[in-house]
Design a protein that fits this description.
The complex is a heterotrimer of chains A (about 290), B (about 280) and C (about 425). Chain A is mainly alpha-helical. Chain A is about 75% helix and about 0% strand. In chain A, helix 1 crosses helix 13, helix 2 packs across helix 13 and helix 12 packs antiparallel against helix 13. The chains are: A mainly alpha (about 290), B mainly alpha (about 280), C alpha/beta (about 425).
């Protein structure tokens, strides 16, 4: 169908996006690559110079790097699992006949509109706080000792916050996918005596596979960069218990003001993220065709 | 609704769904409640639910201290500006990708998405230096461009999945009738894609509204949006939960209301056209 | 095209005219502390005196402020005309030539009225580079009713043993009262600051004269052991996330028997609008260990002008207004003496009205006894009481603070925390080229 003319027209139409994105990517990346080989501390500008691979080796061999890598994976996987599983369950629930479907849907998607720093502040101060937070009140009411969420299980608490932020996104995509499912097919299965679990497993889940893929792909891109919630709640601690790779880079850049180390960290993060992306596309990319 | 639901089952469903919905919504509800409390009540333990002197005092204090109008307007300009600019650039690109399918389309899309993988903190100093060199620090223009570039990959991708749903025959028919390429996009394609475009627009406005790294670091006063407004309340001295809540409500309420009113369009947007 | 150009020229000429007629806008970056926010409410006075200057406020939480202001000044961004910074930044930034010296402020500013330790902390090479807005040290506040009930007295000059005994006696977690609240939140300005002052009183130091870190010394071990014992036995739950503000909130709610923190919070604690325990608060000096150094720090939030500012004269006018004696009198007349920004001027403490306040004398004594040049018993190569005034300290101090807070949360032992602190500081000092 595509003619020569339309092909060249297409090229013109794509090129603004591509060129702009290329500049947006290439110029900062070029500068970051340059800085990553230099000693560049914002507060000590006179001590600048080439350091070869020094920034990279300091970043990789610092005690925090391995833990940060693991924490990043836990955070991303934890949030993905919670949002996808709960998203499926809630989508199925809301898809059932019920009174007030509209309002219910509005309530469920609301967290998506809240700025991440606001939700982190609200959760930290009004829910997790072990002396005057709501969870402490709940525990107290039930007769338990208050639990210090951010001190004792920092990463889990952060996963909870982030999952709360992203659950609406997952639920909505899955819900829409579910609503497009052929009702006759489900009914036929029900007549044939298929148990609810079997109906879910053999009809609903395959139908939603594409939606699940979209959820995983989009969320992974965003979750790999999360550090704002960590900064607000735990500052990566206690110790480095909730330090992730993006937070480590943030720390190098804006707490240590070590531009060289942050640049090296950024380059490493880009490489790792692209490895994850390639892996992800190999694993689930065919669902997208 | 083809399935017949017994009233009992429907009741159970309703209760279950409302319980889940209210739990999910609860933090927002609590923030709104707290914003009406006097500061000492806001930290009272055990918490006070409804029995307190309700007042708008926190809102008054917050507005008096920090103002609101300029932050709000900057958020509106930056969020809508970056999204609309992004759409103008992305629509032709998405059209071309959807209808002139090349062998590399998917790679190109993936590459675009991968530009989002650079950790923001890692490129802060370079972007800062560029912004300074161009004399654009603390301008809405700089933020609009930066957020547009950040969201462009998502916009292209969403539009692409919509456009792909549109049958190519319709376009060919239009072409037979002698429509030019521009006319084809403006009169045939765009109307068909309006729902998709609307939802893409909405989703990206929300993302731009809530972006809180660049908006915080590239602005001082003139271009400061609501994220900066919030950053002034996050942990001042003394009791602050109620004022923080009031400021938070003021920051998220506009976008929450927009979201509620447009949720039908948004739902379509979130499905990325072809989830079905 | 011609018409367009002409229109453009016309428009810009017009805007020039209107610019000349309108006020000079200055952008002031400030921290969201109570005293700063009070100043924003008193701007009518400034505008009445200086109608030709308009102040744009950028009010941020401390860490966000520091990030943005540091990035801006180090890259010469020029977004701000007045910066709010502390005694840590001033000497470092002045040395880099990033700040405008303030030694030609008008005579009415009366530079000799500034408290000597504060003035010294904000000077570099004998020149003042930032004007103090308020100064603080740290001291003890406690609930008198609880002390009475528990049958303990806290002397005005307590030792750490006094504090431990009192905290143990006042601790009553079943009734929501905790013996002692200390900073546990990681950060060089949070737990690291407090623990460093405690270490000073225990005779420990950050670096020896060759800049080698000293966390492997018995003094540090004793400090951290006692700190952990105090907080794990008698502290509130979640102490590892409690910073200045969290502990102040707890104190206002009456949940802390004892708290050792900034002197500047005294006026909040005595304000019945903020706390129902306002009439049950008493103060004491920071504790010591019998070695001649108390665990009190020295800090001043101060206003400075970056070299990159284009409006230095207007900025100077504003700083003079915000930090001279008239401003203190203005606050006193509008909000009472208790709310005057403390800790900057001798004349304030000579004022009989102010001296009546229960915290005035102890605040002054605490500030005057803090010595940034000799923070601890042993000699040190650095200046700074609760910090080390080198650019690397922000990063190191925060990482070390993380180790301490991990120990407090029970994730590692005191020995592990100290070993890690020693290792990471050593690595960082090496990477920074100190040895």
């Amino acid at each position: 169908m595509a003619t020569q003319a339309s092909r060249s027209a297409a090229r013109y139409m794509i090129s603004p996006s591509v060129i702009m994105l290329f500049i947006w990517m290439a110029v900062p990346l070029g500068m970051v690559l340059y800085y990553s080989f230099r000693r560049y501390r914002l507060l000590n500008p006179e001590r600048a110079g080439w350091v070869g691979w020094g920034n990279y080796s300091n970043f990789v061999f610092s005690g925090d790097f391995g833990g940060a890598l693991v924490n990043t994976l836990i955070l991303v996987l934890g949030v993905l699992i919670i949002t996808v599983v709960l998203g499926i369950l809630i989508a199925i629930l809301i898809d059932q006949p019920l009174w007030g479907q509209g309002p219910v849907r509005i309530l469920v998607i609301s967290p998506f509109f809240i700025m991440p720093p606001v939700s982190a502040l609200v959760w930290k101060n009004m829910f997790f706080n072990p002396t005057n937070g709501l969870f402490a009140a709940l525990f107290d009411w039930l007769g338990f000792q208050p639990y210090d969420f951010l001190g004792q299980s920092p990463l889990t608490s952060i996963i909870m916050i982030v999952a709360w932020e992203w659950l609406p996104f997952a639920t909505l995509i899955l819900l829409t996918s579910l609503q497009s499912l052929d009702r006759d097919q489900l009914e036929a299965a029900e007549m044939d005596g298929a148990a609810p679990l079997a109906r879910f497993w053999y009809i609903m889940l395959p139908h939603m596979s594409r939606a699940i893929t979209v959820v995983i792909l989009i969320q992974t891109i965003f979750l790999l960069g999360i550090f704002g919630e960590i900064l607000v709640t735990t500052s990566g601690g206690p110790g480095t218990a909730s330090t992730t790779l993006p937070f480590l880079i943030f720390k190098k850049a804006l707490l240590d003001f070590d531009v060289g180390a942050a640049a090296a960290g950024g380059v490493i993060a880009v490489i790792l993220a692209n490895i994850v992306a390639i892996f992800l596309m190999k694993a689930i990319g065919k669902n997208l065709d | 609704m083809a399935r017949a639901a017994t009233p009992a089952r429907k009741t159970v469903n309703t209760i279950a769904a409302w319980v889940v919905a209210l739990i999910i919504f609860f933090p927002i509800f609590w923030t709104v409640m707290t914003s009406f409390k006097p500061e000492p009540v806001a930290v009272a333990f055990p918490p006070v639910w409804f029995d307190f002197p309700w007042s708008f005092e926190n809102y008054q204090t917050v507005i008096q201290l920090r103002g609101y109008g300029q932050f709000f307007w900057n958020s509106v300009v930056i969020a809508f500006g970056s999204t609309i600019l992004g759409m103008i650039i992305a629509i032709p690109a998405a059209w071309a990708m959807a209808f002139v399918h090349g062998p590399r389309t998917k790679d190109l899309l993936m590459w675009m998405l991968s530009t989002k993988m650079m950790p923001a903190a890692g490129v802060l100093v370079p972007i800062y230096l560029i912004g300074k060199a161009l004399g654009l620090m603390d301008t809405r223009f700089l933020l609009t461009i930066v957020l547009m570039l950040m969201n462009l990959p998502i916009i292209v991708w969403m539009l692409y999945t919509y456009f792909r749903e549109i049958p190519g025959e319709i376009l060919e028919a239009a072409r037979m009738d002698g429509a030019s390429l521009a006319n084809e996009i403006i009169y045939v394609l765009t109307p068909m894609a309006v729902p998709g475009i609307a939802s893409t627009l909405l989703l990206n406005v929300i993302m731009a509204w809530n972006e809180s790294f660049w908006t915080l670091n590239l602005t001082a006063f003139q271009a400061a949006p609501l994220t900066k407004f919030i950053a002034g309340f996050s942990s001042p001295q003394g009791l602050f939960y109620a004022k923080l809540s009031a400021a938070s409500v003021m920051a998220f309420l506009p976008i929450l209301i927009l979201g509620w009113f447009s949720q039908k369009q948004l739902v379509r947007g979130l499905t990325f056209g072809a989830v079905k | 095209m011609k018409i367009f150009v002409r229109a453009l020229l016309g428009a810009s000429a017009l805007s020039l005219v209107s610019f000349a007629a309108s006020a000079t806008d200055i952008t002031v970056a400030t921290v969201n502390n109570g005293d700063m926010i009070r100043m924003q409410g008193l701007m009518d006075d400034f505008y009445a005196k200086h109608p030709d200057i308009k102040v744009n406020w950028v009010t941020l939480e401390e860490n966000a402020l520091r990030q943005q202001v540091t990035t801006d000044i180090a890259t010469g961004g020029g977004q701000f005309d007045v910066l709010t910074i502390g005694t840590y930044e001033v000497p470092i930034w002045a040395k880099q030539g990033w700040l405008v010296s303030l030694d030609n402020l008008p005579a009415s500013y009366d530079i000799n009225d500034l408290l000597p330790p504060i003035r010294a902390g904000l000077s570099y090479d004998g020149k003042l580079y930032a004007s103090p807005f308020y100064g603080e040290s740290s001291f003890v506040n406690y609930r008198t009713d609880l002390a009475e009930k528990a049958g303990v007295t806290i002397p005005e000059k307590p030792t750490w043993d006094d504090i431990k005994t009192a905290a143990a006696a006042m601790n009553d977690p079943d009734n929501g009262v905790y013996g002692i609240c200390l900073r546990g939140k990681p950060g060089w300005g949070e737990n690291t600051a407090f623990i460093t002052t405690m270490a000073n009183s225990y005779g420990a130091r950050w670096f020896d004269m060759e800049w080698h870190p000293q966390f492997n010394t018995p003094e540090w071990k004793a400090t951290l052991d006692d700190y952990l014992e105090l907080l794990t036995k008698y502290g509130p739950p979640g102490a590892s996330a409690n910073g200045y503000n969290e502990n102040l909130t707890l104190s206002l709610q009456g949940k802390c028997g004892i708290r050792i923190d900034a002197t500047v919070s005294a006026s909040s604690l005595l304000d019945p609008k903020q706390s129902e325990f306002a009439d049950k608060v008493a103060f004491a000096l920071a504790p010591d260990k019998g070695l001649g150094k108390r665990a009190n720090w020295l800090w001043a939030w101060s206003l400075a002008i970056p070299k990159s500012s284009q409006k230095q004269d207007a900025a100077k006018t504003f700083i003079d207004w915000a930090t001279n004696k008239d401003y203190l009198a203005l606050v006193a007349s509008k909000e009472g003496w208790a709310n005057v920004p403390p800790g900057t001027r001798k004349s304030l403490y000579e004022n009989p009205e102010y001296a009546k306040l229960p915290f005035a004398r102890l605040t002054l004594e605490s500030i005057n006894s803090a010595d940034p040049d000799h923070p601890t018993v042993q000699p040190v190569p650095y200046t700074g009481v609760q910090f080390v005034a080198i650019p690397e300290f922000q990063g190191i101090g925060t990482s070390v603070g993380q180790e301490f807070s991990a120990a407090l949360a029970g994730q590692e032992t005191a020995d592990e925390a100290l070993a890690n602190a020693q290792k990471l500081t050593d690595e960082e000092m090496k990477a920074a080229g100190y040895y």
